[in-house]
Design a protein that fits this description.
Layout: H1 7-15, H2 17-26, H3 38-57, H4 68-88, H5 96-111, H6 126-154, H7 164-203, H8 208-239
Helix pairs in contact: 3-5, 4-8, 5-8, 6-7, 6-8, 7-8
Length: 243
């Protein structure tokens, strides 16, 4: 079943099909008549919105007279900093840039579905999977960097050498399940929320749609927070030194 093209996806396919096929060729995939999909174009929109937002914010940063936008992002920064310190400890600022990036991207990608004519790219499983794989690669790299190859791999064997043959496969399965867990949680919640909102928007025209849009905002914030929190927990487990 083919998805209904959003207006922006239609623009990309009508005018930038060659560019889309060029990208497909780079990853060894065959060209298509209409290579752009909604979740790809919506990710591009989210990326551009974030770049524009921070381009507007950067020159307005002020110690003496902070604006409303600066106050909002200072609150976000303080919240993420506090949460990451609770999870990771005193080394949390080293990883805060990644935590903030993944939180804001997931949040923006969730919320953009509220805008008429757009949809949340996170309601497509490919986008949550991409974020989950980024988290998976990141926390393993940070673990290797913080502890070295030997000590990091020793975590998979557990605290008792005699139990290593049992613990290694259990730990490997546990780690491999993390991207799947992150993907399904985000995708399922955003897909369900988007479908419920669209159904009630079609059926009702006064007040009730606003209530479901408010629910969509709440779910979007909650899922972005959960995704970032689990990322912090995975990093904390990877970089923790045994005492």
């Amino acid at each position: 079943m083919h998805e209904t093209e959003l207006w922006i996806t239609k623009l990309f396919n009508d005018h930038l099909a060659g560019l889309g096929n060029a990208f497909l060729g780079l990853v060894g995939m065959p060209g298509e008549h209409r290579p752009w999909t909604n979740y790809i174009t919506m990710q591009i929109v989210v990326f551009l919105l974030m770049v524009i937002l921070f381009a507007i914010l950067r020159p307005r940063l002020s110690v003496d007279r902070p604006g409303k936008l600066q106050h909002i992002f200072e609150l976000v920064h303080e919240f993420l900093h506090s949460e990451s310190e609770d999870q990771v400890g005193h080394d949390a600022p080293k990883y805060l840039a990644f935590f903030g990036t993944i939180f804001l991207f997931v949040l923006f990608a969730n919320l953009i579905g509220i805008v008429p004519g757009f949809e949340s790219p996170t309601m497509s499983p490919s986008v949550p999977l991409g974020c989950a794989m980024a988290t998976f690669v990141y926390y393993n790299l940070m673990g290797l960097q913080a502890q070295g190859v030997g000590k990091y791999l020793a975590h998979f064997a557990g605290p008792m050498p005699l139990l290593a043959p049992l613990m290694v496969p259990i730990e490997l399965i546990s780690h491999m399940a993390r991207p799947l867990s992150l993907t399904i949680r985000l995708f399922a919640n955003m897909y369900a929320g988007e479908q419920v909102t669209m159904v009630f928007l079609r059926l009702t025209f006064f007040l009730i749609p606003a209530l479901f849009m408010a629910l969509h905002v709440f779910v979007s914030l909650l899922q972005a927070y959960i995704f970032a929190l689990l990322t912090m927990m995975y990093v904390a487990g990877a970089v923790a030194h045994e005492h």
